[in-house]
Amino acid sequence: MAKILRIYPDNPQENLINEVIKTLNNGGLIIYPSDTVYALGCNIFDIKAMEKLAQIKKQKLDKAKFSIICNDLSHLSDFTRPIDTSVFRFLKSHLPGPFTFILEANKSLPLAYKNHKTIGIRVPDHSIPQLIVEKLGHPIASTSIKDDDEIIEYSTDPELIAEKYDHLVDIVIDSGYGDNMASTIVDLTSGEPEIIRQGKGEI
User: Fold this and answer.
1) Mind listing the GO molecular function terms for this protein (predicted)?
2) Cα dist. 201→52, 82, 183 in Å?
3) Is 79:105 a contact under the CB 8 Å cutoff?
4) What is the C-alpha separation between 52 and 70, in angstroms, rounded?
5) Could you report the per-residue pLDDT of 127-153, keeping only the tens digit for each?
6) Which among 8, 62, 130, 197 could bridge 185 via Cys, Cβ 3.0 to 4.6 Å?
């Protein structure tokens, strides 16, 4: 059964964040809030956890396109090819924020991302995922939680999310109702921003 942790974004309880970190380091899966929708996350360096994430999404891991959640832009060079100064300035002016930026990947990606030519990078404007990544010491893999309802595309109620994913994840972070609009996906591989999916963020 998933453990529900009520963590408040204005003053995240350090002991509860530490419990999340321990779970991630032990290969666990978490559900966490962001500046857009609630999302599933795990340790990007734990291949078994990544496989579980793919199974939940009914995808093969080598085909899955999980975003990488960072707490700032300092991890970019770990995962992406060198980027132009203009692109970096563009990223800096829009992050943290409700965007997923597609960038060219380098050859140092974690095992689960091997052979991916591009990678989606997110820096949410939300204290909880930022603090998790900061304390973990490296980014986490992430994918949005979709709703079964045809009208409401994304699940917003953490209690209902916890019921649905009770036996699939280890921790559900309840931070109140989430948004029901996902991030705007922007492709920057050509150097010029191209909107792939319009979401919450405005370019």
Assistant:
1) L-threonylcarbamoyladenylate synthase
2) 29, 25, 6
3) yes
4) 21
5) 999 999 999 999 999 999 986 665 566
6) 197
